[in-house]
Design a protein that fits this description.
By secondary structure, the chain is of the alpha/beta class. The protein is built from six helices and eleven strands. The structure holds S-adenosylmethionine.
C-alpha cells in the first residue's frame, strides 16, 4: 500500500489487505487469541459445536470471551436469520474489530465489551469476574460456548461464570467448554516433559505455568472441574474429549472439551 507511510502505525492493521478477500478476519498483528491457524481453528470448532453439542442454524448462541471473532466468523455462514449470535469479551480491541467488520454484514451478530478484571487480559478492569452478571435474561440461549477462556480464569471466577451460563441457558440447552485438565495421564506427560504447557505450580485450586501471571494459563484438576458443573446446575455429558496439549497420542482437539446440559428441575 503506497499510502501506508501516512497512516499512524497503530491503525495500520485496519488497512492491511488479506489474500482471500475476507475482511472479517483480523491481520495476525491484531490477534491476541493464541498461536495456530485462525481460520482452521474456527472451522474445527464449528464442527465440534454441531457434532458434539447439537448446534442448529436457528439457535441463539452465546460466545463468552469471544476474542476477535475466531469462532464468530465461521458461524456467520451457519446461523440462519432465525438464529443469532451474541459475544462478549473483556478486550476492547477485539469487540471494536468484530462490531466494525462482522455486525454490518450480519446484523444478527452482536458484540459487547465487558469491563471485567483479568490480570493477564484486562488488568484495569473495574468488575470482578466472580461478581459479573451476564447482560442477558434468564433462559435466553440454546447454546453457549467458551473456547480457551476457562484456561485463563481462577476458581471463584469460573464458578460464577458457570452459574451465569446455567442461568441464561434455556432448559435443555447445551454448553461446550474447553479446559486444560490435570489428571493422572496429563500429569505423567507433564512430568515426562512431553507437554507444551508446564503446569508445575500448584496454586489455590488450580495449576499454572506462571505464578506471577497465573491467568496466562490455568489447568484444573479434572474431578474438581466436573464438580463445579454439578454445583452450578449443569449436567456433564460424558465423555470428556481429551486434547493434545500435554503430548497425548490420541486426541480430538488441542484443548480438552467438556459438553454439558442445563439440568432441569426434578
Ligand atoms: C485465548 S483467548 C480466546 C478467545 C476466543 N474464545 C477464541 O477462541 O478465539 C482468551 C479470551 O478470554 C477472554 N477472557 C478472559 N477472562 C475473561 C472474562 N472474565 N470474561 C470474558 N472473557 C474473558 C480474553 O479477553 C480473551 O479474549
Amino acid at each position: 500500500m503506497r499510502l501506508k507511510k501516512f497512516i499512524p502505525k497503530i491503525l495500520r492493521p485496519l488497512f492491511e489487505e488479506r489474500d482471500d478477500g475476507n475482511d472479517m478476519i483480523p491481520p495476525k498483528s491484531m490477534s491476541f487469541v493464541g498461536k495456530g491457524d485462525f481460520v482452521k481453528i474456527g472451522l474445527e470448532f464449528r464442527r465440534h459445536f454441531i457434532e458434539l453439542a447439537g448446534l442448529r442454524p436457528e439457535h441463539r448462541v452465546l460466545d463468552v470471551g469471544c476474542g476477535i471473532g475466531r469462532m464468530a466468523i465461521p458461524l456467520t455462514e451457519y446461523l440462519s436469520p432465525a438464529g443469532g449470535y451474541w459475544g462478549f469479551d473483556i478486550v476492547r480491541q477485539g469487540i471494536d474489530w468484530c462490531s466494525a467488520r462482522i455486525t454490518p454484514k450480519f446484523p444478527n451478530f452482536h458484540f459487547q465489551h465487558s469491563d471485567v478484571y483479568n490480570k493477564h487480559y484486562n488488568p484495569d478492569g473495574q468488575v470482578r469476574a466472580c461478581d459479573y452478571r451476564f447482560p442477558f435474561e434468564d433462559d435466553f440461549f440454546d447454546f453457549i460456548f467458551l473456547t480457551s477462556v476457562f484456561t485463563h480464569m481462577v476458581p471463584a471466577d469460573l464458578e460464577n461464570y458457570l452459574r451465569e451460563i446455567a442461568r441464561v441457558l434455556k432448559p435443555g440447552g447445551k454448553c461446550l467448554i474447553t479446559f486444560l485438565l490435570h489428571n493422572d495421564e496429563s500429569a505423567g506427560l507433564i512430568r515426562a516433559g512431553r507437554s507444551d504447557l508446564d503446569f508445575v505450580h500448584e496454586m489455590d485450586g488450580y495449576f499454572t505455568t506462571k505464578p506471577h501471571d497465573p491467568e496466562a494459563a490455568i489447568a484444573y484438576d479434572e474431578n474438581a472441574a466436573l464438580l463445579f458443573f454439578d454445583r452450578c446446575g449443569l449436567a456433564v455429558e460424558p465423555p470428556v474429549r481429551y486434547g493434545s496439549w500435554c503430548g497425548r497420542a490420541q486426541y480430538l482437539s488441542y484443548q480438552d472439551i467438556v459438553v454439558a446440559g442445563k439440568r432441569t428441575a426434578a
